[in-house]
Specification:
The protein is of the alpha/beta class. The chain has 2 domains: 3-141 and 312-373, 3-Layer(aba) Sandwich (D-Maltodextrin-Binding Protein, domain 2), CATH 3.40.190.10; 145-310 and 388-431, 3-Layer(aba) Sandwich (D-Maltodextrin-Binding Protein, domain 2), CATH 3.40.190.10. It is 42% helix and 15% strand. It has 17 helices and 13 strands. The protein has helices spanning 3-18, 43-59, 72-81, 96-101, 121-125, 150-156, 164-176, 200-211, 232-246, 260-268, 282-289, 325-336, 338-345, 364-367, 373-379, 393-408, 414-431, and strands spanning 31-37, 62-68, 88-92, 137-143, 145-149, 188-190, 217-221, 224-227, 272-277, 294-297, 309-318, 356-357, 383-384. Strand 1 (31-37), helix 2 (43-59) and strand 2 form a beta-alpha-beta unit. Helix 2 packs across helix 12 (325-336) and helix 8 packs across helix 16 (393-408). It is globular, with a radius of gyration of 22 Å. It starts with a helix and ends with a helix. Residues 1-20 form the signal peptide.
């Protein structure tokens, strides 16, 4: 047996005994393996390599970056089954519960993480498990806002939307009033990734649900939650969007089958003019559409609550079973440091893997000259993260299936379907022992 295979086998045996998750780490003897959920050879993947290179230069610890996008969680599961998880995973905050429930994550001692006291409290909240312990080091944050075709808005003579009624009127004008001036009715108001893959329909709807004071589940005690998709505020938000699909017809054709990859292109091609999305595509759209043609606007407060919008980000996860625990800790500390955060931000260029810095010592305005980032920063003040249920993934997926169905079927009763969803989510919370 080769030295590499022998090391993996011995580490896997120890991990199965000590952690119960069966992880042996996939690093070589002296190389820290880092997985990040980004497309290979993308600008973001290159930024991750730059970050890892700076860490190696500062620490002397060799690194290997693996960038994957499609089926990222599936491939992590495959590595776990082979007892060869990577040492570090940089992944969505919403994946914490799923990875923790499978025993993949090391607990992070906030008090012993150098620089941990410099991170925002809201970012730490997104690294907290259902048991109140920390299972990741906060790395990046983002809040959602509206990226709007400014040139179209000025063409139709409307002000930035202040209410949901204003937003609907802007979408109608973008659909009916030929904002691109080509003499054809070939534009839409909203571009929406409304498919069910990875829960995109509920992911998109969540910003308007939060902006209206609604939610999917609510805490009822330590580690305990109750489903609330039948709450009138949640129903109202989903109904508002069904009206855009079915009554006003202001959503881009085919949206109910689209993920974000397709929706980005729909927006870039001028097929729609209002995109509720995170800041990670701002630099891309500035380059592909033109800086003078787009603006960033906050999500209007809903008629029954708010303000609110989806909060997301990425944590640095220290994977259980690694034979390089000290190196894992050092990488996390570097990633959250001001230097690590600045590298990840990548200034105004495309490829940022730190959208909004979580380190309070980093000045966003000093790093990025584009003032549109400030709208995302201000929106983060009332951002809502996925709650620390043991496993958020099935809740998001179940919600996406129902939300997608009521948008695709104009005869569907939103209130009734959201009530059925509450029953289903209650059962899911019971199965997770979180009800």
């Amino acid at each position: 047996m080769s030295r590499r295979l022998l090391g993996v086998a011995l580490a896997a045996s120890l991990a199965a005994t000590l952690t119960g998750c069966g992880s042996g780490g996939s690093s070589t003897n002296d190389t820290l393996e880092i997985w990040i959920r980004q497309a290979p050879d993308s600008d973001s993947a290159k930024t991750a390599v730059k970050l890892a290179g700076a860490f190696t230069k500062a620490s002397g610890i060799k690194t290997k970056v693996v960038a994957l996008f499609d089926d990222f969680e599936t491939k992590l599961n495959q590595q776990a089954s082979q007892k060869a998880l990577p040492d570090i995973v940089v992944n969505d905050t919403a994946q914490l519960g799923n990875m923790h429930s499978q025993g993949w994550l090391r607990e992070v001692d906030k008090g012993k993480l150098t620089g941990g006291d410099q991170l925002s409290d809201l970012a730490w909240k997104a690294a907290t498990g259902s048991d109140g312990k920390f299972y990741g080091a906060p790395f990046s944050a983002q809040a959602f806002a509206l990226i709007v075709r400014k040139d179209w808005r000025e063409k139709v003579g409307l002000r930035p939307p202040q209410t949901w009624a204003d937003l609907a009127e802007l979408a109608r004008a973008f659909t009916d009033d030929d904002p691109d001036g080509n003499g054809q009715k070939d534009t839409a108001g909203f571009v929406i990734p409304a498919g069910t893959k990875r829960g995109y329909a509920s992911w998109y709807a969540s910003s308007l649900i939060y902006a209206n004071g609604g939610d999917f589940v609510k805490p009822t005690g330590p580690g305990r939650f109750a489903a609330m998709t039948d709450d009138p505020r949640t129903v109202e938000a989903v109904q508002y969007l069904q009206d855009q699909f079915c009554k006003s017809k202001t959503v881009n054709p085919g949206a109910v089958s689209n993920d974000t990859t397709v929706t980005h292109e729909v927006f870039e091609k001028g097929q729609g003019g209002i995109y509720l999305v995170g800041p990670y595509v701002l630099a891309r759209f500035v380059k592909s559409i033109g800086t003078d043609r787009i603006e960033v606007l906050p999500v209007p407060k809903g008629p029954s609550g708010g303000p609110g919008t989806l909060g997301e980000g990425e944590n640095v996860y220290l994977m259980a079973g690694s034979d390089m625990p000290d190196a894992q800790q050092k990488f996390a500390e570097f990633a959250i440091s001001p230097d690590g955060q600045r590298i990840g931000m990548n200034k105004d260029a495309n490829g940022a893997i730190v959208r909004l810095p979580v380190n309070k010592g980093v000045d966003l305005a000093a790093e990025r000259q584009d003032p549109r980032w400030k709208v995302f920063q201000e929106s983060y003040d009332h951002a809502v993260y996925a709650p620390p249920v043991p496993n958020w993934a099935p809740i998001r997926q179940d919600s996406a299936d129902v939300v997608n169905a009521v948008w695709a079927d104009c005869g569907a009763d939103v209130k009734a379907k959201m009530g059925e969803l509450t029953t289903k989510l209650t059962q899911e919370l019971q199965s997770q022992k979180a009800s």
